[in-house]
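Troubleshooting: if your tokenizer reports a length mismatch, compare your output against this known-good record of 171 residues.
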Amino acid sequence: KSLGNDRNAAVLLSKIGDMYDYQKDYNQAVIHYLQALAIDENLKYRENIALKFNDIGKVYEKRGRYNEAYDYYLLASKRNKKNDKKIKISENLRNIGRTLMKLKKYDESVKYYKRALTIDKELKNNLLLTDDNKSIGEAYLKQGNYVNAEKYLNVALKTVGKVKEFSPHKL
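Known-good structure output:
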């Protein structure tokens, strides 16, 4: 049966994709996310289009398919720019930075993390500022640039004290 342009069907397909993702059945997760994406694109539901791109990127990242993850995170970032969703753009930039780290493209990852840092400063989000600075420090550490690594890790240490609700697995 065709699901057509039913917004509720897109939501349910996305939830089924989440279920498969939790079960590590990544092929089925992507299939369901792509079906939800097709409906959202037909309905021009811009916010969910960006969300689906991000979900698909996460699945590809979990599968170790970092180039594809990068492509989908980039699509999500571009869509969120059109939607003017700064918090989501910041998330996408961190996802891109993390994916580039896994590809051992440390210079590029720093650029994306710094772009996220700029947005998170504007948003005054201390948890994300801590994560950004930690990630930049880690990238410099991987490059053997210990001066910059220490600089950014120390900034992360200072901002972590300003985080009201801290969760170690968020960093």
